[in-house]
Amino acid sequence: MDFRYLGNSGLKISEVTYGNWLTHGSQIENEQATACVRASLDAGISTFDTADVYANTKAETVLGEALKGERRESLEIFTKVFGPIGPKGHNDLGLSRKHIREAIDGSLRRLQTDYVDLYQAHRYDYETPLEETMQAFADIVRAGKVLYVGVSEWTADQLREGHRLATELGFQLISNQPQYSMLWRVIEGEVVPTSKELGIGQVVWSPIAQGVLTGKYVPGQELPAGSRATDDKGGANMIKRFMNDDVLGRVQQLKPIASDLNLSMAQLAVAWTLQNDNVATAIIGASRPEQVHDNAAAAGVTIPADAMARIDEVLGDVVESDPARTLDSSPKTREA
Predict the structure, then answer these.
(1) Nearest Cα to 295, choosing from 307, 286, 287?
(2) Which of 12, 230, 287, 329 would suit a FRET pair with 156, their CA atoms being 20 to 30 Å apart?
(3) Ranges for the NADP-dependent oxidoreductase domain (predicted)?
(4) Looking at the domain assignment, is residue 226 inside a domain?
């Protein structure tokens, strides 16, 4: 496993992060989830990403149990705050001072740790003053509950203002967690250049486009049983934007490129995101240990320039690159 610094900080994290969105506490049994975490550790992954909203806090609990007994100093544990949790009351969501202070304590209990290495604003909260949010983050950093602060799916302008306030308050905003893959490149136009300027690194999610870039979905064929596209708990809804014959057909054309590089399709997809020097780590998810080992092997891979050009040529206009799509990620109102 190779490691990179996260943003302009001294924190090193593994190039591949294990994340448990849509799996732990919902799609797979706890025993299988633990097996995936053990496989991650065996593969050299030291960084683990979760969120309190995943499976309404259950995912954090499962991860905490799976990591019990590991040397805490050898791990980087990330979680997030924003989405509705618990009974989903009127203050059980968002980035208010009240919710942040209560949410971090709940996350620490579930993760069975005294601190998290990175605490992330899961989305931008349009209904809470940003000054209030950043002051709350500053307070929990000073309390020792959080070492570093990051965000997820913020626009370039939001990153700039958040970074300014963090600097004034005496702590670092070091990361952003956006969706990023060969098919979804909306951060490249504005978010990445701004992040480079500010010293913010990307912790990217869905580098395999929810499984589409593995090539397992073939135009005109039935969906594989048990796949993300058949999951009625949220997975199918997330993946539907890519489930058309044009996209799926072009993905099939990536197979010779992967083969020429002696990579699986998943490895090619993960490695592609890591060619961006503003990307610190790519988050992988898995329902089986063998998937973890396959994806983790993308760390340290260099894709030659000619292969990168061939990928662009194959995918052509099915790639989504509009920077404005980041605005769609954060809800404009907090709804309980």
Answers:
(1) 286
(2) 12
(3) 16-314
(4) no
Residue 200 sits in a domain whose CATH number is 3.20.20.100
Residue range(s) defining the domain that contains residue 195? 3-208+277-301
Residue 292 lies in a domain: yes
Residue 33 Cα to chain centre, angstroms: 17
SS3 of 5, please? strand
Contact 24, 55 (CB under 8 A): yes
Q: pLDDT tens across 144-175, in order?
A: 999 999 999 999 999 999 999 999 999 999 99
pLDDT in the model for residue 219: 82
Q: What is the 3-state secondary structure (H, E, C) of 12-30?
A: EEECEEEECCCCECCCECH
CA atoms within 13 A on the CB side of 63: 35
| Pairing between β-strand 12-14 and β-strand 3-5 as defined by DSSP bridges | antiparallel
Query: Quick check: is 54 catalytic?
Result: yes
All residues at 6 or more sequence positions from 60 whose CB lies less than 8 Å from its CB, including other chains: 50, 51, 52, 54, 79, 107, 110, 111
Q: Which two tokens stand for residue 185?
A: 């490149």
The DSSP call for residue 317 is G
Residue 31 has pLDDT above 70, yes or no: yes
Asked if residue 252 is part of any domain, the answer here is no
CB-CB contact of 93 with 334 (8 Å) = yes
Answer for the pair 146, 173: CB distance below 8 angstroms, yes or no.
no
Query: What is the DSSP track for 134-169?
Result: HHHHHHHHHTTSEEEEEESS--HHHHHHHHHHHHHH
Q: Looking at the 3D structure of the chain, how many domains does it have? A: 1
Q: Which pTM value belongs to this model?
A: 0.93
